Every structure is written in structure tokens, then in C-alpha cells.
């Protein structure tokens, strides 16, 4: 399994409201996100199947009822067996007759677009294929959908639990909720997000995203100093009251942001200091730039190679 499959990207719900761990995602030419992964907490490390799966989301379930198999395989990148499997899962067949009472559909559009499949089944006796078909009819009629996810039974249970226990959550972070109530980390995060939303304060994920943005701005503001090669890492670290490992990490992040490779950074430094490298002794260069003799020799070697390739 490649590195890109080792780290979980996010957790999402499928068309039935079940949670899945996403390990691979990409946007298709149809503008639809395609996800691959395992059912929640059922990775091979936890005893799950070795192969991971395409995830049948609401968006994909609706799309495969609107287009031919040839068109779907071309625009979503699925194989024909995958498309047929998904259609079978939602009970959709091209020969399957669907009768619409469009006046009724319009009257109940909010419920059809947002209520869970379980609720619609209990209230109106609708099957999942009927709900998908009714949803498509509304979308084709030009009715915008404010959110793609339906409320699932699990989500409803989480909200009900939160409403009955929110007084006990005051001041608790995700880890503390997890420990005190015995929930998984993911459910604890959902509960914590509900508490933050009620108080109208940023969730932990939103705070983390803001910290990432602030860190990126800080890196860009200090890029000239952080990418200096004429002084040791320790000296740069001292200026920012930190250690060389933090500065090394900052450099790596900056190179990714600016799309600069480490070899290219060395080439730039050598070109900028070509005159000193050619005229000064190793001792003089050490004293002026505070770098080791091995580094100086590697720079001189690189300069020679560059001149030979001119």
C-alpha cells in the first residue's frame, strides 16, 4: 500500500448515512468528488479488508441515475462493474419504472432534499430509489440544494445526546469528552463541534485551520531570513528564540509553498556567492559565512559543475 493510502484524509457519510474513513480523494471532470477508503474504523490495521473501496456518496448516487454507463465511466473514472454495483445498491435499473407525483414532490421538497432515508421511509413509505429519483426531479426543476448531506440516524442520536448532556460539557475539549464519556475520538469531535456551534465560537478544527493560515503568513513574512544559507541554522534559530529543528521544518514548508527544491536553493546561493567561492580561502569563507569546510567544498564542487554545464 502506497504512502498516500496510509494517512486518513477525513471521515464522511455515504448515501445511507454511514461513516467512512477517506484515504484517497480526487475531483472528476464532472465536478464531483470521488472518495476511496474503508468503513469507519475498519482499516486493515483494525482487522478490516485489505482492499479499499469507492464510497457511494449522495452526489454519486444521484449522478448515476441521470446518465448512461458509458458517460459515467468516462466522467467519473469508474469501471463498468463499479457503476453496475452502485446502481444495484440503490435499486436503480434503466427499465425500472418510477411514477412521480410532482405536485406532492414540490410540497414536500425540503423533507425530500434533507430528511434521512429512515425518516422519509417511516413518514411516507418511500424507498431509497424513490427518494433519489424525487431528489433528481427537484434538482432538474432548478431547486437549489443548500447542503448535500442528509441527516442520518447516527447524527440525530448525537444531537439528542448533546441536548440532554450539554451542561456536562462546559469547558471540556475533545480529548476530555472522549475520556469522560467513553466515546471514540470522532464522536467526541462531533459533540465538541455542536457545543462550539451553540456558543458561536470556533471549533477546534477551525482554530487549527486559522493557526495553519497564521503560520503560513509568518513563514512568508520571514522567508528571506529563514532561507539564508550564509549563516548556520543555529544562528537563525537563536534570532527567533527556537531550535534548529524548528527552523529546518520551516524551510521545508517554505520550499513547498514557494515551489523551490532544496538543490535549487543551493544552486541559487552558489551563484550569488560565486566570487567569494572562487577568490577566498576556506578559512576566510568559514569566518565570513559561519559554515563548515565540508559545506564550502560541496559548494565549490557544485560551482565547478555549473560552470562546466554552461
Describe the structure.
The protein is an alpha+beta fold and 310 residues long. It folds into three domains: 1-57 and 67-94, no CATH class; 153-201; 210-308, no CATH class. The chain has helices at 58-63, 69-76, 80-89, 102-107, 109-114, 117-124, 128-140, 153-165, 174-181, 185-199, 204-221, 223-226, 233-239, 244-258, 262-272, 274-279, 282-289, 293-308, and strands spanning 10-13, 19-27, 33-39, 53-54. It has a four-stranded antiparallel sheet, with no helix packed on it. Strand 1 and strand 2 (19-27) form a beta hairpin. The longest helix is centred in the C-terminal third of the chain and has 18 residues, at 204-221. It is elongated and about 90 Å long.
What keyword list fits this structure?
310 residues, alpha+beta, 3 domains, four-stranded antiparallel beta sheet, elongated
